[in-house]
Amino acid sequence: MSGGTHVNIDDAGLTLADPTAYADDQRLHAALSALRREDPVHLVDPLPEFNPFWAVTRHADVIEVERQHETFINEPRPILVSAAQDRYTAEHGRMLRTLVHIDDPEHKAMRSVVADWFRPRALREIEVDVRRLAKRSVDKMAELGGECDFAQEVAVDYPLYVILSLLGLPETDFPRILQLTQELFGSDDAELRRGRSPEELLQVLLDFFDYFNRITADRRANPTGDLASTIANARIDGEHLSDADVASQYVIIATAGHDTTSSTIAGGLQALMTYPGEMDRLRRFPGLIPSAVEEMIRWVTPVKEFMRTATTDYELGGKRIEAGESLLLCYPSANRDEAVFDDPFRFDVGRDPNRHLSFGFGAHVCLGATLARMEARALFAELVPRLQWVEPAGEPEWSDTTFVGGLKHLPLRYSIT
Prior knowledge:
The chain is of the alpha+beta class.
């Protein structure tokens, strides 16, 4: 698409607080292009429903903020939610916190609990299992007889099986974890959500916590060699983590560890269908799979934003940010920044360099980035050579969200060996 469409700049800013905009690529990117071009650090004072925030839309400005994690902190407003939810989070903060809610030094200590599990050396030990699960997913496509909802029947299941296998959880529990994840991230989507009120969102978290508290009790009584045991028995300064912090560790890994990857996989295949010449390139040159996956991650950008709050007055992009004001780091915009990416609205499986910010940057860079890349590479390395042809079997549907999301339905017809 072109970034030249005229959009009222205030309307463009309001788009960032509208969950339906993220299910409409053309509308979203017309707004983001206008913001980058005309007012890249833009004050959004949308509606009584939301507290004001600065929209940061250029790649360089997002990096500048993320690089200074003491000047721009996660607390008290780590993601964009309604003013009512902001108030509720402030009142129930300890119960609602995960790694994305906290700052150093606590963030560094909590991150260290699981960091070793996601280092490249550790992940190489599970690569055989990841490839096995990728093959099982493509075999499942073949068994489905040439038609499926790829988003629901393949893209969701595969990374969920990987991350929950890493945790050491039984496959019989996977449907429950999937439901809770979709309710947590899908609170703006009528199909996925349990409810929109702060109390209903809290109940989703409490259901997660209830499940994982039972896992913690079991792993403390009967420790094993899985990630769940590492979390359950972790100590900081000689003390076990609190029940809330243990459960929060599980929740962030079990949700972010699969939902973002499933969005990348579904959106990546949809992009290959939209640009069949790129699918042909991958068939001819399978060595492009790693760069193709990076392009899918850029193209989909499953995490739409994180918020930061200024601890001191600061000038960013020519605008004065006052201490206590919030900034929204807009990753879909940064990943289409014309100053960084040549022809950013072209899907290019050989794009190099590809300095996307889909995993964030700096102290809060995504802990599971290496695993997400491994999963997507394994899936497409298995799928592309076996997929003889593929076409839509209906309209794709994206989730309404302002935080995490992507394709929720991708009906396909195909022939697969």
